[in-house]
UniProtKB/TrEMBL annotation:
Record-linked InterPro entries: GATase_2_dom (IPR017932), Ntn_hydrolases_N (IPR029055), PRTase-like (IPR029057), PRTase_dom (IPR000836), PurF (IPR005854)
Name assigned to this protein: Amidophosphoribosyltransferase
Functional note: Catalyzes the formation of phosphoribosylamine from phosphoribosylpyrophosphate (PRPP) and glutamine.
Cofactor: [4Fe-4S] cluster; Mg(2+)
Residue ranges constituting the Glutamine amidotransferase type-2 domain according to the UniProt record: 8-230
Entry's EC annotation: 2.4.2.14
Family of the protein in this entry: In the C-terminal section; belongs to the purine/pyrimidine phosphoribosyltransferase family.
One GO molecular-function entry: amidophosphoribosyltransferase activity
Binding site for [4Fe-4S] cluster: 246, 392, 443, 446
One protein family per Pfam: Pribosyltran
Coiled-coil spans in chain: none
Gene: purF
Length: 454
């Protein structure tokens, strides 16, 4: 894994229009497939409060077919896509569905909780038994235990929120409600949308765009939005703290067409390229972008310096999860199946390559090798974010700390390792300045170690 991956995407809806709920959730999840490719799941609620669900490992298109979607009949539902970097994706697929004294409940989570092991251990000591390793299951047990003490499910959720330390967005479905919850610092995104009398919750606005759903607003930090047959209403689950939205959503995770906290992701990436050009100009004949997330930053970089941007890398469209990864002797020969280079675009030229971020440095090394092999005269690497030197505890799937290239090494050593002629990164100030429309501050902990929570 070179890029950090966000662990999940959420999409839920409460339908009052007679839409095909499961189909819309399916398309919503499909439009956010970039947020997780290990597993997918949809749970729907028929009008009687009975829940049915399908979840399994694989892409959205692999888990569902027309027959399965047709069987998922209901007026409300929540869906989830999982990025998991460890144990069994099938076992940990979400939504988690339980039955307790108040009926069915389904829970889907995006994010990471720093104290989830302690909570789980405490519940186990009290007799709870868990079937998955997912925090969503722990949360479902917490909510079900709290529910008896509160008149409404939202009040029960509010009562357990102070226990949850970390960055998260969550969907909860009960027989009469679909509920969205966002952590009190707004680290993970969650947005509300509407079409006529139907209401939607999603990790990203790009899902609304694809379904012709109108974006209404971001769920606020600490807010619990409750959607039922009458429409949405909110309670404040926890007092909102100063917002610390994940800045890596703008750098890499989110779809470029999405708007997060008022800031369009594409524009943020373009601005990052502009700031990078001012901070670290390179004397080059052409700017080369790295598919796909490096495109906007490379455009900003090229426009600012007046250097032509060329298409040099071509991504193999069919490279994916199912490819047998080269190992052993094949890996040693550095067979790179994902990208190929158009030689005429780079031969005998001084090239500046713009990518969005660097985690382990292995991709940068391969890019430089590919360009040199194609005849580039010189290769300068420019990265449109700061150096990543700390782990993320809020749901980004990333290598352990010691595998982060900047955990122990400096820029000069990494430049040498990649084989580039020069290497430079955008400053933290440049990243923030690139997001002028974002409402509030940012989590930048993986860049600077300043974690929003303990
Ligand atoms: S640590 Fe990095 S990836 Fe994790 S939430 Fe903060 S900015 Fe995002």
């Amino acid at each position: 894994m070179e890029k950090m991956m966000d662990r999940c995407g959420l999409f839920g809806m409460f339908d009052n229009n007679g839409f095909h709920t499961s189909h819309l959730i399916y398309y919503g999840l499909f439009s956010m497939q970039h947020r997780g490719m290990e597993a997918a799941g949809i749970c729907v609620n028929d009008n009687q409060g009975n829940f049915s669900y399908v979840k399994d490992e694989g892409l959205v298109t692999e888990v569902f077919d027309e027959m399965k979607l047709e069987k998922l009949q209901g007026h409300a539902g929540i869906g989830h896509i999982l990025r998991y970097d460890g144990s069994d994706a099938r076992e940990n697929a979400q939504p988690i569905v339980i039955r307790y004294t108040s009926g069915h409940m389904a829970v889907a989570l995006n994010g990471g909780l720093t104290n989830i092991e302690e909570i789980r251990h405490d519940l186990e000591l009290k007799g709870s038994v868990f079937q998955t390793m997912e925090a969503a299951e722990v949360i479902s047990v917490l909510i079900s235990r709290a529910r008896n003490n509160y008149p409404t499910i939202e009040e029960a959720i509010a009562s357990i929120m102070p226990m949850l330390k970390g960055g998260y967005a969550m969907l909860v479905m009960t027989p009469r409600k679909v509920i969205g919850v966002r952590d009190p610092q707004g680290i993970r995104p969650l947005v509300l949308g509407r079409e006529d009398h139907s209401w939607f919750l999603s990790s990203e606005t790009c899902a609304f765009d694809e379904l012709n759903v109108d974006y209404v607003r971001d769920i606020q930090p600490g807010e619990i939005v409750v959607i039922n047959a009458e429409g949405p209403h909110s309670i404040q689950g926890m007092p909102a703290q100063p917002i610390r939205a994940c800045i890596y959503e703008y750098i890499y995770y989110s779809h470029p067409a999405s708007v997060f906290g008022g800031q369009e992701v594409y524009k943020a990436r373009y601005n990052m390229g502009c700031h990078l050009a001012k901070e670290a100009p390179a004397d080059a004949d052409a700017v080369v972008w790295v598919p796909d997330s490096g495109l906007a930053a490379a455009a900003g970089y090229a426009d600012t310096l007046g250097i032509p941007m060329v298409d040099a890398f071509v991504k193999n469209k069919y490279y994916g999860n199912n490819l047998v990864k080269p190992e052993g002797i094949l890996f040693d020969r550095k067979i790179h199946m994902k990208l190929s280079v158009i030689k005429s675009q780079v031969k005998d030229k001084n090239i500046v390559v713009v990518d969005d971020s660097m985690v382990r440095g292995t991709t940068a090394q391969t890019l430089v090798e590919l360009l040199r092999h194609a005849g580039a005269k010189s290769v300068h690497l420019r990265i449109a974010s700061a150096t990543i030197s700390h782990p993320c505890y809020y749901g980004a799937s990333m290598p352990e700390e010691k595998k982060l290239i900047f955990h122990e090494q400096g820029v000069d050593a990494v430049c040498k390792m990649t084989g580039a002629d020069s290497l430079a990164f955008l400053s933290s100030e440049g990243m923030v300045a690139a997001c002028p429309d974002a409402a509030g501050g940012f989590c930048m902990a993986c860049f600077n170690g300043d974690y929003p929570t303990k």
